[in-house]
Amino acid sequence: MTVALKDYETNLPIEDASITVLNTRQGLVSNKDGIFKISLDKPSKIQISHASYKTITINSSSLKLKENIIYMDRSTKTLEEVIITTKHPQEILKKLVENSSDKLTIPVNLKVYVREFFKKNDKYTSFNDGLLNFYIQGRPTSVKTDILVEQNRFYGLINDEVDESTLGYNLNDIIGNYYEFKYLEKVVEAYSKKKYDYEIKTFPNKQDCYIMNIRPLQNIDGYLPDFYIVYDYKKNIIIEINSSVLTERYEFKGVTDFLVIKGKIFNSVFNATYKYDGKNYYLASSKEEIGFKTTNKKKEEERIEVKNYLVTTNFGTKPVPYDKSDVYKEKSLFNKRNTILTNYWEFDSGLTPTEEEKQIIESLASKL
Question: Which of 48-57, 121-130, 150-159 has the lowest mean pLDDT?
Answer without folding.
Answer: 150-159
